[in-house]
Amino acid sequence: MTWGTYYFFYECPKCGKKFRYELEFASDENFGMCPDCKVMGTFVGETKDNKQGEDKFADYEFV
Hints:
Blueprint: E1 7-11, E2 18-22, E3 42-46, E4 61-62
Parallel strand pairs: 2-4
Antiparallel strand pairs: 1-2, 1-3
């Protein structure tokens, strides 16, 4: 049984873009970096921060 993908959510301090990274790619050297600006994003939450049935990070793009 799987519980699904675990995400870390970020916002770019430079352009304001909202994006997410899958935990399984944490070893990637670009993990947490804005895909547009290439600067480290500000960590704003992770999958566990969503309560049952809630999706407060729905507007964060997949990287």
